[in-house]
Amino acid sequence: MAFLLLIEDDEAVRTALEMGLTRQGHRVITAPTGEDGLKLLREQRPDLIVLDVMLPGIDGFEVCRRIRRTDQLPIILLTARSDDIDVVVGLESGADDYVVKPVQGRVLDARIRAVMRRGERESNDAATFGPIVIDRAAMAVTKNGEDLQLTPTELRLLLELSRRPGQALSRQQLLRLVWEHDYLGDSRLVDACVQRLRAKVEDVPSSPKLIRTVRGVGYRLDNPQ
Amino acid sequence: MAFLLLIEDDEAVRTALEMGLTRQGHRVITAPTGEDGLKLLREQRPDLIVLDVMLPGIDGFEVCRRIRRTDQLPIILLTARSDDIDVVVGLESGADDYVVKPVQGRVLDARIRAVMRRGERESNDAATFGPIVIDRAAMAVTKNGEDLQLTPTELRLLLELSRRPGQALSRQQLLRLVWEHDYLGDSRLVDACVQRLRAKVEDVPSSPKLIRTVRGVGYRLDNPQ
DNA sequence: GCCCGACTGTCACAGCGGTGTCACAGCGGT
DNA sequence: ACCGCTGTGACACCGCTGTGACAGTCGGGC
Question: In terms of domains, do B97 and B173 share one?
């Protein structure tokens, strides 16, 4: 599901969490100290970091700050007991979430997913959906390698859908995300834009494989095998 | 531990609960009215909502219903006295739990953890019932890995049942949850929809293993071994 | 074990509502 | 001034949905 770096000095906790998270479908690399962690971060570029606060050498907060100097990836802090948390210090050093030890893989996994969902908006990586490649940095979309000329609105719509792949979005949500409207009269606005986007994106616009209709709800961008 | 939105008009109660919950390790944001709460919900996407029932303007039940139109996150209702609770109304407007005021942060924290634990299986992750997998984010249902084409009403019905696995729901409750009707004439409406859902979901629709009939009451979604 | 009443399953059908589609006019950018 | 993007309303289509009637089933009382 995600590519994680786990920084934790206690070997028992480390291996337990590593196994738990691997079982949840994540790819996990680990480091026992902050220094090792920062090195691994540079070498392997994980998607998310799970970071123990109490570390030998530089502590978790400091690791957090150093990461934030150069990277924006999500960071989840692990802390030993709830009263040890200094929320303010943690937030100010740039963490996205906390989990209190002792923690089970399931719980941590749920938090990871939550943070990743939150963070998906800001991701700048290229995304691929079948023949479609969305390059967020270039704000360009290609189909089978050829440039697609999307209009601004079509592009925003595709971007919002692609930030939540596989998730159904209601017309209301899309109106807010793409058009920044707050109300939905009876309007074919979203449908019309989806139609135009499908005409450019789908191989067979009349039987769409990428932008699926979810009846009674809205639309969803799928990733075909 | 969790990222909470607390909606409560009484400032003394609000700040007291906010402090208590923060001390328990939660990250808390607050709103004094339903409108403010709904706005914050959209902007900040908390994991869980603690919601006072008595609010100026739109009341807690109504806030609850509006949230449920677009979001699945857990909702805990705060109510002033136990005899004020209309448990049925509350459940039907989509709340996950109740706490009776006056409430201490510790108690509320325990309920929050309980609801979150319950919610981890449900929330946006997939729920499994025998061969059926319900992907709430995608609003899609599969049986043995194959896509089931559920109609909007069938899907809403299945979602409401799956939010309370093993719990019998009356036709009246289902009417409110799925159809937002308030009255129950003598109608085969729920039965008819259950029948259609069973036809798609069950292996042997005539002897259902998932959607069980509870005679004299209604229906219940079971999780067979 | 039988009967009866109440409850539930089933079905066909007509109406309706949601969705796809399109053309057009206004608007803004070039 | 021109051109292309956008939002709107109209319209058609299709499949969902609620209804009512009837059949089947269950459970309790005797």
Answer: no
Q: What is the pTM of this model?
A: 0.60
Instruction: Tell me: do B181 and B98 sit in the same domain.
Output: no
Residues B81 and B166 in one domain: no
What's the CA–C1' distance between B189 and D19, in Å? Answer: 8
Angle made by CA atoms A109, A113, A115, in degrees to the nearest 5? 115
Distance B61 CA to D27 C1' (A): 38
Q: In whole angstroms, give the CA distance from residue A53 to residue A76.
A: 10
| Domains contained in chain B, number | 2
Contact at CB, A82 and B24, closer than 8 angstroms: yes
Helix (H, G, I), strand (E, B) or coil at A161: helix
Q: Cβ(B7)–Cβ(B52) under 8 Å?
A: yes
The CATH number for A156's domain is: 1.10.10.10
pLDDT string in tens for chain B (225-residue length): 678 999 999 898 899 889 888 887 788 999 999 999 988 887 777 889 999 888 888 888 888 888 876 666 888 888 765 544 555 566 566 777 777 777 666 778 877 876 776 655 444 556 788 889 898 888 999 998 888 999 999 999 999 999 888 888 888 888 888 887 766 566 789 999 999 999 999 998 888 889 999 988 899 998 876
| Residue B49, domain CATH | 3.40.50.2300
